[in-house]
Model the fold of this input.
Amino acid sequence: VLGVLLAIRLLLNPVLAFFRWYSEEAERKTGVVLSTDFIPLIRKVLTVAVYCIGAIIILEHFGVDIVALVTTLGVASLAVALAAQDTLSNMISGFVLMADRPFRKGDRVKVAGVYGDVRRIGMRSTDVMTLDGNIVIVPNSKIAAEYIENYSYPSRKFRVKMEIGLAYGTDPVRAEEVILETVRATEGVLKDPEPAVFFLSFGDFSLNFTLTLWCKSYAVSWVVTDAVNINLARAFAENGLEIPFPTRTIILPSGEGARKLLPK
Done:
């Protein structure tokens, strides 16, 4: 009996030490928090499993029929697995996320319909802070089953796309020159990749241009967009480029047709 108990302790200690080391390395490299969820659970599961095996060995040594005990343990394990299937699904998904690493702590993502910054990656759930400052706790099984859009990977550079409409009669080539010159001189706009502007369509009342530019990260995209809009408004005013209002031309009939429209 003492030999079995000693063997249990000798087996458990290195295994638990390995999992502690692994959780620390995973947390340091990926930001996945394992020390609060994963390690305590693994410790308990392994301890219970090893002690159950030890108890079975000891009982068998004393001539006790262990077939019924093993059957009971099997049925009990199945019942526990069915009762905790949601928790187990989240934990298995946590393993998958940890191995696949589709995002890291601090990344801006869109997962399971939630848009925001990853604050914590746990074994059962992931915390995402929305732009409103609210924390949304998303189950890992939900994340693993849906598309993940990571705005911080492989690069934190963020593309800003803007639609610009100018009045008919505007020289498109001159308009593109003014837009690019203004954008390139705006603080926060990256030189590489370079900003680009394209004259893509004729609208109902405007010539429609699409401007694309890059900033260093999503965190400053609104600030850069604000600066670009202010500088473009000033540049358009200085160069006589007009931003049109929606207009409609209404042609009324005259003569006999007009008299028919008048009330009798």
